Amino acid sequence: MKILSKGGGKRLYYDGHVHTPFCPHGSNDTFEKYIERAISLGIKGISFTEHAPLPKNFADPTPAKDSAMLYSDLNHYFQKLQKVKKTYKKFITIKTGLEIDFIEGYEQETEQLLREVSPELDDAILSVHFLQIEGKHFCMDYDENVFEEMVRKSGSLALVYKNYFSAVKKSVKHSFKSFQPLRIGHITLAKKFQKLFPADFSIEEDIHNILIEISERGMSLDYNGAGAVKPFCGEPYPPSWIIKEAQKRKIPLVYGSDAHSAKGLGQGLEQLDQYAKLTSPLLLDRAK
Ligand SMILES: [Zn+2]
Ligand SMILES: [Zn+2]
Asked: What's in the GO CC field (predicted)?
């Protein structure tokens, strides 16, 4: 696959959102396999951002409880990354990252984890995947059946969106002190099944408010290609009109394939807004 911009020139880019063999719901592709494919695609850098271990007192609502990496694997994950960083130093920039779940009510546990991993971390994405409805947690991007249940339990699709955007906004506004992740993950994940559950309401105001908060804090956006290749979504997270609004507010955009296999690197890139200026991640200042 050639990554070409619409102008025909090669679009050099950084992939800031990549999963790894440590993901229990991903592929077993090795780091080396990801990295070598990235080099062959001309990618200039990668942040490996595995789903960080969930808080110990949080019950993963997915059937196989496989939403995130195991806490007991963390050291091994960091060691492996240190090793590949050295091996591939001359060929590609590799950053050690995590995709951190923002789960309302578990902020303290999350801060504790961030504090613990901070000496190892160069980069981090803060994402919302879990929403609470009537006291029960749901993984909103798990599949269309779970999503349908969420709509039913909430009373309407609009209320699922409200719930999601409210959580995203809280994730932006919450202070994890000096351990703050600097990038907000896939801010329109609620649209993952939009072809099955089309929205007949506007999300402009919610998006507007979220973008203001992101820009005030100098954070950046995960411009995530995975939505574009999801059959029921068909657009990146977020779509172009939001990207335009983000650019008006000078919010940095970091492309993320959200690949869960080496083959997924670069996915959705061609569906991104061709005028969007992609950038490398702002790195955490404790990065070494
Ligand atoms: Zn995943
Ligand atoms: Zn995610």
From this structure: cytoplasm
Q: Is the pLDDT of residue 287 over 60?
A: no
Q: Closest-lying ligand to the alpha carbon of 50? A: 1
Q: How far is the CA of 7 from the centre of ligand 1 (A)?
A: 32
Nearest ligand to the CA of 99 is 2
Share of the chain above pLDDT 70, in %: 95
Total count of domains within the chain = 1
Within a domain: residue 7?
A: no
- Residue 2 within any structural domain of the chain: no
Q: Is residue 27 part of a domain?
A: yes
**In terms of residue numbers, what domain contains 40?**
14-271
pLDDT in tens, 99-123: 999 999 999 999 999 999 999 999 9
Instruction: State the distance from the centre of ligand 2 to the C-alpha of 8, rounded, in angstroms.
Output: 30
What ligand has the least distance to the C-alpha of 261? Answer: 1
Residue 75: inside a domain, yes or no?
yes
How many CB atoms sit inside 10 A of residue 283's CB?
15
Give the ligand at the shortest distance from the Cα of 125: 2
The identity of residue 150, as a single letter, is: M
Q: How far is the CA of 55 from the centre of ligand 1 (A)?
A: 16
Q: Taking 90 as the threshold, does the pLDDT of residue 39 lie above it?
A: yes
Q: What average pLDDT does range 81-108 have in this prediction?
A: 97
Q: Is the dihedral of CA 277, 284, 16, 222 positive or negative?
A: negative
Domain containing residue 203: CATH number: 3.20.20.140
Ligand 2 center from residue 184 Cα (angstroms): 10
Q: In the prediction, which pLDDT does 26 show?
A: 96
DSSP string, 204-266: HHHHHHHHHHHHHTT-EEEEETHHHHSTTT-S-BS-HHHHHHHHHTT--EEEE--BSSGGGTT
pLDDT at 284: 81
DSSP SS3 for 81: helix
User: Is pLDDT larger for residue 265 or for residue 283?
Assistant: 265
